[in-house]
Specification:
41% of the residues lie in helices and 19% in strands. The protein is α/β, with parallel strands linked by helices. Helix 7 links the parallel strand 3 and strand 4. The structure holds S-adenosylmethionine.
């Protein structure tokens, strides 16, 4: 997943109550915004909305394939072992993982600060929460209530366990938020009926590294968006990260095969030249391990679809742009050092670089050679920069 990146921030406006927009008007908005992507995918999308069932059996086959894919996602994430800190630190891409985690930390902290300007009690939906990688960020942000949802039951159990441990370990005066944990395929089931408090409203929905799984079909993407947005308070925020489809296609087109990548990651498409709006599948592998298939998210389409839930785009950056903007702030820089989100170059006497392949640190070597440079530098290997800049 750690390939392309966009950090999207979408603000719910106060017209929110009136959200049941008729689907055709959204269809025309899609048609109007359709630019370079194949027009056949747009018309097939419209056909389904119009209820034309001429290709009923192929649709049925597609639905079966989609549910098989959801099962694959759940099985994949359920099987993923929770590896300890020591194990994680041995990984070739430990700094890239830390770097991505730093981006999330900054994004989450900033949005919570913004929400707290208006609200004393903050409620968050962590959609596709996984094993609870962001629980500490919610705790640090002093939120009041959290709902965690994920398709993978084992991940949800581990997330709940982590939350219980966090509570137990905390100081008696520590205020830990209350939490609910829900196992659900958020691209097919509505979360609203599963909430313990049916009146609950969210100030923030955070959907980190998740949206691209739902772009298998229009319906799945819409259900995911509905879950993300329909219970946001007016003025609430959706924050998310998803690969950058432009960058992915650019790199694919520049490659002389159906894939691109390097020693840490690889993205493989079935073919080039045709990029449907939904179901544009690719395989992503990281450190040689193939992940479950993902789907391109064409951002203008995502933005249009979100309008159905009265959401408005307020901020969009690639990981690179976000990093360059946020690292200027001293407190983010300190957090970056603390999280070891960049690798030290040159390494200290006991240290070793993450890669000894030729050319992996030429960029750092060049900068370090400048007498005016402050050493040691913080960097990532060339392959990690390439991987993280696909987001
Ligand atoms: C890359 S992980 C990210 C986990 C977490 N958000 C984080 O940043 O650490 C993607 C997560 O999305 C979840 N996911 C994928 N499709 C989903 C769906 N349809 N409904 C709910 N969760 C889904 C997976 O089970 C997995 O936990």
């Amino acid at each position: 997943i750690l390939i392309l990146k966009i950090i999207g921030l979408i603000e719910a406006d106060s017209k929110y109550a009136d959200r049941d927009v008729d689907q055709d008007s959204v269809g025309s908005a899609f048609d109007a915004s359709q630019t370079s992507t194949s027009s056949s995918s747009s018309s097939s999308m419209k056909r389904r909305w119009d209820g034309d069932d001429e290709d009923h059996s192929s649709r049925k086959k597609q639905v079966t394939e989609e549910s098989l894919h959801s099962q694959k996602v759940a099985t994949h994430y359920n099987k993923l072992q929770e590896c300890g800190l020591a194990e994680r630190n041995k990984s070739r891409i430990v700094h890239m993982r830390n770097f991505n985690n730093w981006l999330k930390s900054v994004l989450i902290a900033e949005i919570l600060d913004k929400v707290k300007e208006r609200r004393r009690e903050v409620t968050v939906l962590d959609l596709g929460c996984g094993k609870g990688g962001d629980l500490l960020k919610w705790k640090k942000g002093r939120i009041d209530k959290l709902v965690c949802a994920d398709i993978a039951a084992v991940s949800i159990e581990q997330c709940q366990q982590r939350y219980n441990d966090m509570r137990r370990r905390g100081h008696p005066n520590d205020r830990t938020f209350s939490a609910q944990f829900i196992t659900a395929d958020c691209s097919r089931e509505l979360l609203s009926g599963k909430l313990r408090d049916p009146e609950l409203r969210f100030d923030v929905c955070s959907c980190q590294f998740v949206c691209h799984y739902s772009f298998e079909s229009e319906q799945q993407a819409d259900t995911m968006l509905r879950n993300a947005c329909e219970r946001l308070r007016p003025g609430g925020f959706f924050i998310g990260t998803t690969p950058d489809a432009y960058e992915m296609v650019k790199r694919l087109e520049a490659s002389d095969s159906n894939s691109f990548g390097n020693e840490v990651f690889r993205v493989s498409f079935q073919k080039k030249g045709v990029y449907p709006l939904f179901g544009c599948q690719y395989d992503f592998s990281l450190e040689g391990v193939v992940n479950v298939p993902e789907f391109l998210v064409y951002f203008p389409l995502f933005e249009e679809m979100a309008k159905k839930y009265n959401m408005r785009l307020v901020y969009k950056k690639t990981f690179k742009e976000f990093f360059e903007e946020k690292v200027k702030d001293e407190k983010n820089k300190v957090l970056m050092q603390w999280m070891q989100a960049l690798e030290q170059y040159p390494p200290d006497e006991r240290g070793q670089l993450a890669s000894d392949s030729p050319g992996e640190y030429d960029h750092a070597k060049r900068i370090a050679a400048n007498p005016a440079a402050r050493r040691p530098l913080g960097t990532l290997s060339k392959s990690e920069w390439e991987a993280t800049s696909t987001w």
